[in-house]
Structure formats: C-alpha cells, structure tokens
C-alpha cells in the first residue's frame, strides 16, 4: 500500500512539473512573439532591470503583450483574477498564500501597461518566478 502511495505521489509530482514546464515554454513563446512585434519589442536589458524601467513605454507595451497573451489581463487591460490565481498556484501550493499574493500583486494601476509591469514585478519579488526573473 505504501509503495502504491509513493508511486501515485511521484506521478502526480511529475505531472505538476510537466504542467509548470509547459507553462514556462508557453510564456517563452509569448515572449518571443512580443519581441518579434516592433510595437511590443523591448530591449532585454530593459526587461532584466524591470524595477529601474517601470515608466518606460517600451517595457509597458512588452509586459502588457505578455500579460494579455498569457491571460493575466483581458484585452481591455483589466486583470483576470481567476487566471492569475491559477498561474500563481503553479508555483505556490498553499491556497492561502496564493490568495495573499493575488491580493498583494493584482492591483489595477493607472494604465494597463503599468498594471502588467507591477504585477510581474510583484510576483517575481514574492517568489513566483516562472514568469520572468528580473
């Protein structure tokens, strides 16, 4: 019985990792698509230093492109809380911690681009790093 339980846990763990890896690949593809569009291209050095480039229009456009394409924001720029929770839960297993992070990070800002930038940056600073590591 214990062997079966260990086996089931191992399979579930592998499936969870696979899903997280799929999400990472999906986001990498979205990043490349956003970079390929001149309207949403941002130099990688700007993105690597996100906290120093919060007000850069190129950074905002790029991060909004990623955020909408991964489903964190709707086309009108409003946050999609359900999807944000799902994505955070890929990295954070404690449901209360997921809710805390969503409340802390998913805050509508004065523009859709700023909302995207602050969302990604806040999640990254709080250990949800599969989106980007800034």
Automatic annotation (TrEMBL):
GO molecular function: odorant binding
Transmembrane parts of this sequence: none
InterPro entries: PBP/GOBP, PBP_GOBP_sf
Pfam families noted in UniProt: PBP_GOBP
Signal peptide range in chain numbering: 1-16
Keywords of this entry: Signal
Superkingdom of origin: Eukaryota
This protein's name: Odorant-binding protein
Organism this protein belongs to: Anoplophora chinensis (Citrus longhorn beetle)
